[in-house]
Amino acid sequence: xxxxxxxxxxxxxxxxxxxxxxxxxxxxxxxxxxxxxxxxxxxxxxxxxxxxxxxxxxxxxxxxxxxxxxxxxxxxxxxxxxxxxxxxxx
Length: 90
What we know:
By secondary structure, the chain is mainly alpha-helical.
């Protein structure tokens, strides 16, 4: 019997990477590159080990939420960001 599976986008980061990002205070600190690369390699290996038909990096380097990651760093965004109203009050 097989159980249909579907990979999810974000995979939890390893504790060591979380602690390093927190200690750095800058999720884009170049000193974290090796830890990000290691987390990505581990995530891909784990997906491969499951036989998943889709292999993802688990969004290990994605540092912004689903609303803002696509516009982060654009020159026409105010330094304090912007508000996105949710109809449900989130």
